[in-house]
Amino acid sequence: MADQIRVLIVDDIPETRDHLTKLLGFESDVEVVGSAASGAQALEMAVRLSPDVVLMDINMPDMDGITATEKLSAAVPAAAVVMMSVQGEADYLRRSMLAGAREFLVKPFSSDELTASIRQVYSREQDKISRMAAAAPPVSNDSGITSSGAGGENEGRVIAIFSPKGGVGRTTIAVNLAVAAATELGRSVVLMDGSFQFGDVGVLLNLNPKNKSIADLVPELEMGEPESLDTFVIKHSSGISVLLAPPSPEMAELITPGGVKRVIEALRRRHDLVIIDCTSWFNDTTLAILDVADDVLTILSLEITSIKNMRLFLEVADQLGYEQSKIKLVLNRADSTLGIRVTDVENSIGRKVDHTIVSDGRSVVYALNRGVPFFLSNREAQVSQDVLRLATVISGEGAATVADDARKPVQKKSMFSFR
Ligand SMILES: Nc1ncnc2c1ncn2[C@@H]1O[C@H](COP(=O)(O)OP(=O)(O)OP(=O)(O)O)[C@@H](O)[C@H]1O
Ligand SMILES: [Mg+2]
Questions:
Q1: What is the 53 CA–ligand 1 centroid distance (Å)?
Q2: pLDDT tens-digit series, residues 345-366
Q3: Residue nearest to atom 26 of ligand 1 (CA)
Q4: Is 364 helix (H, G, I), strand (E, B) or coil?
């Protein structure tokens, strides 16, 4: 059997420590190597025990979880922190992510959620370590994330394409949305690949990965804004501009939240629309993108895992203080029902779906394999029509087509009914 995941528990309440230790005792792949009652003790133990994962309470009397995480990230960078907080601590949550926490759990959580989070951060960390073998040393993170609303008068709209689960069609939608807004609506569009480690945007558009990427632009912007971004942004034949992800995953480490924000600000000053294909997990750079976005198009599919994660995400978005209207729910592959109906989804997540895109494997996969967006090769297909409607809404034209009541919550159920 594979190595066990070594976990350190940090909580000032003895009962919580005991409870978590017992819960994790049932998992054969997890070993609790210690439990600490304070931030200071956590630091000391982490240095000594080198845990893989640290479960950190956010509220502790001597040193709060955020400060402890900050120190721990510096002292024991290989230990991934999972922050535990109670509801209504939006600011804490944001700050803890910036301090270096990899995940957070909102109390009360089920033992399944707990172990899933631990396994997830652990395997992500392992992936990272193995990819970092020949990598450049990471530069330190700068923070300075403050939430900003819509941009100023001459600034374009920033549209983040996000989903709390992978493989639901984010990249497909981001690419075709960008092309639709540019070719049909005449918008000046830049598409940014916000999946810095495993970006697919270049593949879908058949662009040469040797082109310059955001990794070249970030250091440039640190020295002041250049006259033009032409050297970094690629022109695609459809008319959209594209800012690629770095050519190798380890270079993603060089991109900080502050750097991402500067890039987005520079792009939005030059384009009507900045469309960003995000990762499906929270990290500090994704959070920075979601923060500055005017709209977060959150993609879900008719799968139970996608729906469950969506409920969690909506809760987190609430905690982060995002306006409900900033999050727009887009159901992709809407007709491949497989036993779940749209109304089931809406009842489960307590919200109406704002937009749907049909499933069309023929057009979509054929286009993917040719490196031509389906919006260009199959303009008449229903899937293209659906994308165009969405492009119209996010471009600010006919925004009223998103029914106002579509975003009103329907009877909201507690997300923690998943037990
Ligand atoms: N509307 C659709 N109809 C049919 N197939 C689709 C549709 N949207 C996406 N797909 C297919 O689903 C798969 C996943 O799409 P895509 O890569 O865009 O998702 P993603 O969320 O970006 O995934 P990842 O997490 O890997 O970044 C692809 O094979 C794509 O062709
Ligand atoms: Mg993708």
A1: 31
A2: 888 888 999 999 999 998 998 8
A3: 167
A4: helix
